[in-house]
Amino acid sequence: MGAGIVFAGAVSELFAGTDPAHATGGRGGYGPLVPDPNGLLDLPKGFRYRVLSREGDPMRSGEGPVPSNHDGMTALAGPGAGRVWLVRNHENKPSGGTHRVPAVKGLTYDPEGRGGCTLLELDRHDEVLTERVGIAGTAVNCAGGPTPWGTWLTCEETEDKAGTNGYAKDHGFVFEVGFRPGHRTVPEPLTALGRFQHEAVAVDPRTGVVYETEDAFDHPFGLFYRFLPDRPRGGFDSLRAGGRLEAMRVPGVPDLSAVPEPGTAFEDVEWVPVPDPLAKQTPIRFQDFGRGGITHAQKLEGCYWGRDSVYFVSSYARSSEGSAADHYGQVWRYEPRRRRLTLVVVFGPDTAVELPGDSPDNICLAPSGGLMVCEDGGGAQHVFGVTRDGEVYALARNARNIGTPEEPEYGEFAGVAFSPDGRTMYVNCYEPGTTFAVTGPWRH
Fold it and tell me: Which of 15-24, 233-242, 403-412 has the lowest mean pLDDT?
């Protein structure tokens, strides 16, 4: 049994990003999970799933087997009515993952990199029409984010340089993956966005500013960044034109974990230029940001744009590992126009609602007005839902994860996303890599 996942704070604020979230209810859960006779995915009554893709199966492109370690993902409108593009990351490390992303001519950055992205094109019935490599030769592709111009920014969660772990090139970058006509992927990093242990990004559609989270593994922990592009109007390949990278400083708050109360707001957020964005000698989080230092946070993960703000997640903080305080997750909101940062939600454990689980990770807004949260912890793994009123319920459980908290199988969920029409939830099981399409009475 893991720590209880609970939520405190203005949960309804998280749903401010989409009109459907305002127009519909998102009230209550969907009932108890029903054991899956096939032993894959337990869902509430009335829901069903389809397996779209499994690691090791042949890709329809003939480029090789489906790669391992399914992680961050997005679902975007495809060519034709009801069609969907799924863009899926593969977090393959130097020695991890049975199946690497196959090297494809014209799409490979570093021949020694095992990670990358794959693309699935689905019809309106969630039948897979095509499946192919989107980019290859990258490393530890964890999350990322969609752009307003219809591409995917995939993030490398590593700082390995050329010569480390057998790599031929430096890693720790963001890459743009295009899959529409005229959006041909260029397998070269967007170096101006910095070299660090990237997790996720979100783009302000009005200004083109890119917000970035850093999931650093050791103390001092990661930073929250913004990239101000030289071509603020955006468009495919616009981020390659350069810009300025800055890191967030909250005066008097060196560690965000020290803030315990939802609703706490800081009106004087500062942005400090990063001394060396390419981290040629020193990782960015270790660099000298001058008087006042810089603000850190442990396990900065998910990041998304909602209406006039950017939201980002700290998956957990542990004082035993160097954080200022302990929590099981925070969600923060930054309002660029007001330069205001607010702690919106805190995850457990000190309220009455408890569920078996811990370490909230990827999050997404549901068309019904709910929030979906992927669990990344020990023991049983779930996708949890959260209502506007803060009610927490289990939406899915990995029926294959038979490990114990002491020796769990690594069956976390990742990459939860909804189709543009809101009828299907897509989600990955990290290992063994599996992509599911889940349908059911979402408007309940």
Answer: 15-24
- Could you tell me the CA-to-CA distances from 388 to 15, 28, 53, 348, 385 in Å, in that order? 8, 9, 32, 17, 10
Q: pTM higher than 0.85 for the full model?
A: yes
Torsion angle in degrees (nearest 10) through CA of 168, 170, 176, 177: 30
142 conformational bin, left if phi > 0, alpha if psi -120 to 50, beta if neither: alpha
Q: In this structure, is the dihedral angle defined by the CA atoms of residues 293, 295, 298 and 302, taken in order, positive or negative?
A: negative
What are phi and psi for residue 312, nearest 5 degrees? -140, 155
**Rg value, the chain, Cα:** 20
Amino acid present at 401: N
Count other C-beta atoms under 10 Å from residue 424's C-beta. Answer: 23
Bridge partner list, 133: 118
pLDDT of residue 360: 65
Q: Note the pLDDT tens digit of each residue in 315-373.
A: 889 999 999 998 888 889 999 999 999 998 887 655 333 333 456 677 787 776 667 88
How far apart are the C-alpha atoms of 100 and 136, rounded to whole Å? 9
Write the secondary structure of 12-72 as one string of H (helix), E (strand) and C (coil).
HHHHCCCHHHHHCCCCCCCCCEECCCCCCEEEECCCEEEEEEECCCECCCCCCECCCCEEE
The tens digit of pLDDT for each residue in 228-268 reads: 999 988 888 899 999 999 999 999 999 999 999 989 999 99
The structural domains of the chain, ordered by start, are 7-439 (2.120.10.30)
Q: 221 — phi, psi (to 5°)?
A: -80, -175
What is the greatest pairwise CA distance in the chain?
60
